[in-house]
Write a structure and sequence with these properties.
The N and C termini lie far apart (28 Å). The protein is an alpha+beta fold. It contains two helices and three strands; from the N terminus they run αβββα. Strands 1-2-3 form a three-stranded antiparallel sheet, sandwiched between helices. The radius of gyration is 13 Å and the shape is flat. The protein has helices at residues 2-12, 52-72; strands at residues 16-20, 33-40, 44-51.
C-alpha cells in the first residue's frame, strides 16, 4: 500500500497523500475507525487504528506541519 501511495504521490505531483488499507474489513468504509499512512515528499507518518475524528485531526496536523516546512523553505503551495 505505501509503495503504491508513494508512486501516486510522485505521479500526481501532489504535496501529500493519505493511504489506507481498504482490504481490512474492520476499518475504513462502514466503520467508525480507520488506520492510515500520511505521505509527503519528505515524510511518512503512520496513524494507528483510531476513530475517524482522531484520524481527521492527525491529517490536519500533518497538513499544518507540511505547510510550515514549505513556508520555512520559502515555497508556497496555497
Amino acid at each position: 500500500m505505501e509503495d503504491y501511495a508513494k508512486e501516486k504521490l510522485q505521479r500526481k505531483g501532489v504535496h501529500m497523500i493519505v493511504a489506507n488499507d481498504v482490504s481490512q474489513k474492520n476499518i475504513g468504509f462502514g466503520s467508525e475507525n480507520n488506520a492510515v499512512t500520511i505521505l509527503t515528499q519528505h515524510s511518512e507518518v503512520k496513524i494507528p487504528l483510531a476513530n475517524k475524528f482522531k484520524i481527521a485531526a492527525a491529517i490536519l496536523q500533518e497538513i499544518q506541519r507540511d505547510r510550515h516546512q514549505e513556508i520555512k523553505k520559502g515555497c508556497s503551495f496555497l
